[in-house]
Automatic annotation (TrEMBL):
<dbReference type="GO" id="GO:0071897">
    <property type="term" value="P:DNA biosynthetic process"/>
</dbReference>
<dbReference type="InterPro" id="IPR043502">
    <property type="entry name" value="DNA/RNA_pol_sf"/>
</dbReference>
<dbReference type="Pfam" id="PF17919">
    <property type="entry name" value="RT_RNaseH_2"/>
</dbReference>
<dbReference type="InterPro" id="IPR041577">
    <property type="entry name" value="RT_RNaseH_2"/>
</dbReference>
<protein>
    <recommendedName>
        <fullName>Reverse transcriptase/retrotransposon-derived protein RNase H-like domain-containing protein</fullName>
    </recommendedName>
</protein>
<feature type="domain" description="Reverse transcriptase/retrotransposon-derived protein RNase H-like">
    <location>
        <begin position="2"/>
        <end position="71"/>
    </location>
</feature>
Length: 73
């Protein structure tokens, strides 16, 4: 249980102290990552900065309604 609490606190710190979203550098390549499951969809628009770090520009997530769950992925 200690590991779970530590992981949760690390995530909470990362989302509340550092800037989560940054402005895009329009001259650099953008990266779009998507994920879909039976009950939800999500996407992250990001960009590599300094060759190693990744800066997030937009986040999207949605829980699907019952009719939407019938759509083909």
């Amino acid at each position: 249980m200690d590991e779970c609490n530590k992981a949760f606190n690390n995530l909470k710190d990362a989302l509340t102290f550092d800037p989560v979203l940054e402005y895009a550098e329009t001259w650099k390549q953008l990266i779009l990552d998507t994920v879909a499951s039976h009950g939800s969809i999500g996407a992250v628009l990001s960009q590599k900065i300094d060759g190693h770090q990744i800066a997030c520009h937009r986040l999207f997530s949605k829980c699907l309604s019952r009719p939407e769950r019938n759509y083909l992925l």
